[in-house]
Each structure stands twice: as C-alpha cells, then as structure tokens.
Amino acid sequence: MSPESPKPTSNRWFATTIAITVLIASVSIIAGFAWLPIAERDSPFRSVWDAICSSAGLVRRSPITAVVNPTYKTSTVVVSLQTLPAATAESVGRGGTLAMRCTMCHGARGVSDANTPNLAGQYAPAIYKQLRDFKSGARTNAIMNPLVENMSDQDMRDLAAYYAYFPRLRASHSANEPAPQIVIHGAPMRNIPPCAACHGTIGYKVGTEWLEGESPVYLRAQLEAFASGERHNDISEQMRNVARGMTIAEIERAAAYYAGQP
Amino acid sequence: MLHHKRLILAHFWLGFGGFGLALLLGAWQMWVRSPLHPWINNPEHYYRSVTAHGTTMGYVFPTLVAMAFGYAVTELSLKRSLIGIRWAWAGWILVALGTVTAMVPVSLGLSSVLYTFYPPIIGSPFYYIGVVLVVVGSWIWVALMVVNVYAWKRANPEAPVPLSMYASVAGSLLWGWTAVGAALELIFQILPASLGLTHTIDAGLARVFFSWTLHAIVYFWLMPAYIAYYTIVPRAIGGRLFSDSMARLAFALFLVVAMPIGIHHLFGDPQVGAGFKFVHSAFTALVAIPTLLTVFTISASVEIAARLRGGRGALGWLKALPWQNPMMLAVAFSFVMLGFGGAGGLINMSYQLDQSIHNTQWVTGHFHLIFAGAIVIMYFAIAYDLWPHLTGRAFVDLGLIRAQLWTWFIGMIVLTFPWHWVGILGMPRRMAFYDYSNPALSPEALSVVASVIGGAILVVSGALFFTVLVRGHLAPRVEPPEYRFSVAVRPPVTVPAALNGYGLWVGLMLALTVINYGFPIFHLMFRSDTSVPVVHIGASR
C-alpha cells in the first residue's frame, strides 16, 4: 500500500510529528512554568526554581505566625452519617431511663409547653451534638451544663436514640399561605441559604435540627443568640453568618413558620 | 449495504428517545427559572431535572449515536458484515441497562448531583453504577471498531482504509481513552464513598480526573458530525471532497490535541498549579488546527459542488448551492453555530479572559451552541441520510425536514445568544432560583425570557424531528440505491502509513496525557491533607 517504511526511525512522518509535539510542549512548559511567572512586574519568586515549584502547584507551608484563638470554646464535634449507627432497642430503652431527668423541661414524651426544644422525633445526630457541646462548654446554659457534666458518651447516644424513636412533630401550615421567602429561597444576595435546605423540607444535612413544631419563642431566642454571638457552637460559624444577615422580620417569620402556630 | 439494520436502529432509537425526554426537561428548566414562572419552591426538583438532562444528553444520547453511526460506517465503508454482532448487542444492552439503572435513583431524588458528579456531594450508588455500565457498553463498541478495522486491513493489506472508517475508529479510540478519567474517578473515589466504604473524598483530585474526560468528550461528541462533514456532505450536495489526506490529518490531530487540555475547565480551581493551567491553555489553542483544517476543506468541497452546478464569481457561487437540500442546510447551520461557539470558546480557553465568564451562563450558552447546535444538527442530518437505508422507505416530506432544521437553528440561536449575554452580566449557571425583582438581577430578566422562547422553539423542532423519523418508517417501501460516501477530488491510491493507522497518534495522545496530567494527579494522590467528608444526598438518619 504505502511506499514508506512504517518503522519509526526511518519514517519522516513519525520524526516530524514527534519533533513538533515535543517543541510545542517544551515551549509551553518553559513559558508557563518559568518565563511568565518571573516576567511579572512584582514577581514574588526569588529564583527560577521557586517559580517552577509554585507553578507546579506545590504548596509551601506558611511560616507559623501567632494563631488567633477565640475567647470562647468552639465545638469539636464532627458528625457524619456514620457517627450514630442505627439504634438498638437496648439503647432506646436505656435512653428512656436516662430521660427521666429531662422530663421536667422537655415533657414526658419529648413535647412540652415550656418553650424548651421539643425533642420528640428530633434527629439523633442533632441531639447528640448538642449534648456533647453542652458537656464541653461550647454551648452554655445554666440548666443543661450541670445536667450533662457526668454523662458518658454512651449516655448521650442512648438519649439521642430515645428521642429520635418518637414520631416527628409537624407544624400545621395553612394551605393558602406560601412558606416565607427566607425559609424557601433564603436571601441569595445576602448570602443566606434557605432554612429548608438544611433543616428539612428541601434538604437535610446531618447534624442539623428538625425545626417543625418547635416553640417560636425558642427559635427566635436561638436566632438572636446566634446573631449576637452569644451562642457559638455552630461549625464554621454557619448559623452565626446566617442569623447576622437576617432582618428582625425574617427571624419572626421563620420562627412563626416552623412553629406552625397561627 | 447494511447487514444489521435492527442493531443500528436500536441504537439510534434508544439515543433519540432519551434525547426527546431530556429535551423536554431542558425546556422545563429554562421555563421554571425564568421570570415567567413563579419559583417552584423546591430547588431539589430543579437539580433532579438538570441531572437527568445532563446525564442523558451528555452520556447516553451522543454515545448511542456514535455507536449507531460507527456500526453503519463499518458495514457501509468496508462493504462487509460487522464482526462481533453478539458483542454489539451486549454493548447496547449494557447501555440500556445502565441508563435505566442511573435514571431510577435520579427520578427518586437520590442522586441530584448533576452529570459532572460534584463530589464531595454523593448520591445513590446505582446512579454511578448506571453511568459505569453505559461507559462499559460503549467500550465494547470501541473494541469492535478496532477489531473490524484491523480485520479488514489484514484482508486488504494493499488498500487504504476508507476515510469514513479511519475517522470512526479515531473517534472510538479517543472515547476509549478519554472515558478513563471519569471511570477512575467513579471506580476509585466516588463509588467507594457512595457504598459507604469510605467517608472522605479528595474532591480536587476527582475534579482533575473528571477534567480528563470532560473536554475530550466534546470531541467524541463532535466526531460523528465531522465524519458527516467530510464523508457525507460533499456527496449529498453533488460535490467532491477537496482533500482526503487533509481529512485524515484532521482526525489524527483530534486524537492528539483533544485529550491533554481538560484542565482549562479548572482555571478557578486552587488544587492545580498555574503552570499546568497555562500548558493546558496552550494545547487547547492547538485544537484550532484540526478545526480550521476542517473549515477550509469543507468550504472548499462545498465550493466544488457550487462550481459544478455552474456557480461563478468570488462569492457568487454561494447562490448556486442546493439550498433546498437538507444536508446543505444542516452543514451551513452547523458551521454558523460552530463559528459563534468557537469564537466564544476562545474566551473560555484563555486563562485570563475566562475569569470574566467562569461558571456563568456564558459557559452553558457556549456548550449548547457547540454540542446541541453544531453537533446535534449534524446528528439529525446523519439520521436523515441513513434512514432510507435503514428502513427501506424513502422520506416523502423534505419540506418538513427543512422546517425541522430551520427551527432547530433558530431555536438554538435564540436560546444561546441571550445566555452568553447574561453570562457577561454575571449570571451564575446551575442556580435554581434567580430573584429578578432584585435591581442587580433585573437587567437579565428580558434575556432569560428570550431563552425560554428559544427553548420552546427547540421543543417544536424536536417534535418535527420525531414526526419525520416516524413517518419515515411508515412511508412506501423503496429499494434505496447503494449507499455511497463522498469521493475525493483525488481518491487515495496510497496513503502515508501514519495516516492509515493510529499507532503514532495514540502514542502521542498517551504521552501528552502523562506530561499534562501525570504530575497534578500524582501530586494530589500523595498529599494527605486534601480529603473532605462526603455529603450524602437525601441522607436523613
């Protein structure tokens, strides 16, 4: 078919093509890794080798300067789907016994009128995280802190399993009234995601609370505490950043919507 | 002649069926996030739809069209029956099975991760397993294309491989290698996390792997369109192909320069060094070579047709072209969209200019203009060209075909030009909600409404397309003449060995992959501090 030799060494197609490719690759590598980084007017590189390493994506650890520690304790709890494996009946039973101490405020079956959180059907990882934060002092409350002080990790898991075992509370929403903007849309221009994206309805993120059926007084107080920084056990300041951007009216509307009271 | 019409039709119909459904989803998405529709209140539904639209349009539809066209080209150009027919059916079954496996969890809202996967978001394992099955099914096609061309070469050692076959195999080899990136990401990173075996994922590394696939996949989508430009268009409009060698060189070059350029999708990503971004940008620019070779060769071929029909003058020959011929319309529309899309692409591939439109609707506009416009309109043309040979029935309504091509072209322009514009205004892509009452966004409202109208025109065009195909099955039986591909002005008698085989080009493709991807991948693999916890979709324990 072809008069030319297919052997790479004696075929000009092979030699030429490879030479052109090597040339293009070399020129672009030299330009991208050495010439352009150094040619910048205020090039931060002291040597060509510096420039090459940086262009290759090697990260140099910055010299450790003074780390600014917060003046308060932050949460160290990491929750994932695997943190709390499916609860056993034994765990739920133990939780039921331990919960005798909680009934005064949280009700005999996790529901109360005391403007404390209703815990019936609450997600287990959410309860577990809050208990751990109360114990470490990342979240402060004059009643809760002493109560959890002597709790073991297993106690907290059992309590979480016990309350999660109850049916989840639902708020009663009027069919004609649309959900508030802040709950469904958030406020994109103020960088506020919708409440429902993490707290149920649209999406759920592990570790967040189920909010429907909670007391509006409690919800409002917590949002205000996040906004003022008084409560600070949210990871990476997620809730503080949200609450700080919310208007008072939005806080009212979100609390009323989730409480589901007319 | 075609020996396995049912195989080819099964591929076409599965692909076009998915396309039809995904087209409706696309138009719906455009509608619900426009100012014409109140917000649907649940972004999950929007992202579910985007995932289904992207997965079908990106992985299922073009793959099946390429497979169908590849099998057809094999039988028509080599003039013999396809080797490995059982394997071909097995491939089809895998693609069909994979599509269903992937779409069930997407429909249930368990995998709204978009077709680009976006780790650390992790969806149902069935979604990823479905995608892997689609890819494995298509790899069977890659193997069959290679087996068939080498069997033919052994039987015909003196003859050059027909151009259409040479190009089809080049396209299949490109896909075989480019799919490896996403396959590595799925098999070693995402599936273990999705199955609960791992709880963290290196999202940056996953994005690098995906970029390996993400850009070259566009050239895989493009291949059937380019093959049609070279080997069908000149024949269909009564001309000659200007140069057979130029065509082969273009396809060979696509193998080399399409692959090592994907990091230009990661210009905004911190985990890849600026040097590699520059190198990928430089190699992306080289794609202009095979593209411009093609534009030149096809324009010259079309001019030959016009001159043969009595066209005169420097540009006067344009009037002599057979504008009533659907293939003429298709290639003209395709070139216009390729031109605009390519011009926009120059912005995307530039490390500096990209900053102004990165992750905006501009990008969506760009790839719809190139893929859904320039490429898909040629898929239509391919179907129209092959259908009489597949069904044994002639089309009766050329007017309907012309209307379909016109509406697709107009619809795509009306859809994508406003997208480019709002992208420049800063409208982010892949957002479920835009508050057009906000003064910062309100200038975008009118353009978005225009895009909705474009989407609606495309739905009408899609309906026309299916009408034409179905009527093609119902038309009176005819005995179609023997299928012919274009003949070159100088038909090849001998071809340089390099342009009759793939070794050199595949070698360069592999070598450039190692040079351009080797360091970023290994660097991230061996760093211990780059993994983040996975985020499961729809998890509610």
Describe this structure in words.
Chain A is mainly alpha-helical and 262 residues long. Chain A contains 11 helices and no strands. Chain A has helices at 12-39, 48-55, 89-98, 103-106, 124-136, 144-148, 153-164, 181-184, 216-228, 238-245, 248-259. In chain A, helix 9 (216-228) packs across helix 10 (238-245). With 541 residues, chain B is mainly α. Chain B has one domain (5-536): Cytochrome C Oxidase, Chain A, CATH 1.20.210. Chain B contains 16 helices and 4 strands. In chain B, helix 6 crosses helix 13 and helix 11 (326-349) packs antiparallel against helix 13 (361-391). The model of chain B has no long low-confidence stretch (mean pLDDT 94). At the A-B interface, helix 1 and helix 2 of A face helix 9, helix 16 and strand 4 of B.
Instruction: Tell me what the CATH architecture of chain B is.
Output: Up-down Bundle
Could you state the CATH homologous superfamily of chain B? Cytochrome c oxidase-like, subunit I domain
Question: What sort of overall outline of chain A do the alpha carbons produce when their principal axes are compared?
Answer: elongated
CATH topology of chain B: Cytochrome C Oxidase, Chain A
In whole angstroms, the N-to-C terminal distance of chain B is 59 Å
What quaternary form is this?
heterodimer
- CATH classification, class level of chain B: Mainly Alpha
